[in-house]
Amino acid sequence: MKKKTGGKKKAATARWPFIIVLLCAYALSSGASYFFLKDKFAFESSFITEIETRQALNEHRKKTRETGRLYGANGSIPAVKSGTVPRKDRILVIAEDTIKKMVAKYDARLLDLYLDRNGVIYMDFSDELKKNYHMDISEELNFLAALFNGIRSNVPGLTAMKILIEGREIDSLGGHIDISKPIGEEIAGII
User: Fold this and answer.
1) Burial of 159 (0-12, 13-18, 19+ CB in 10 A)
2) What is the pLDDT of residues 22-34, one digit of tens each?
3) Which distant-in-sequence residues (6+ apart) come within 8 Å of 183 by Cβ?
4) b/e string for 114-125 if b means 16 or more Cβ within 10 A?
5) pTM of the predicted model over 0.90
6) Which end of the chain has the smaller Cβ count within 10 Å, N or C?
């Protein structure tokens, strides 16, 4: 007796298109249900939100602590918003008052104040300082020495100062003394 094996092969090959159609239908329905139902199953975790908020706050505090920046990024919002002022910021506020008194007669605004880790204080002024500044060499030297000594008396660890106009480095205020690099101890003993 002969066995027929051809019928089983035909039945097995006839199932493959049906299985492929079923797999395609499953993949299509899974993808469609994901896009239509993903908003219904999404959830907000207050724990995750709180962790992200704390990380952002810590990064902001770290940047403020490392740089000693008095102003925020746009130059108008103080870095410290609460009533308590950390020691480093308090020192910069006192230095800011000293600087404003020194440049008041030139109608210049202090745009930014920055103290780096090396003890160099960067002062960014409006361009009125350069426009309204008319001094001879001795007056310019005395002004820079008085400015440095006034700031140094309020900021312990100050090593030098750098004057910027509208965020740009300048060579000199009155054309006599080079201030393109930070200056400090070399003019401290003038007055």
Assistant:
1) middle
2) 999 999 998 888 8
3) 144, 148, 160, 161, 162, 177
4) bbbeebbbbbbb
5) no
6) N
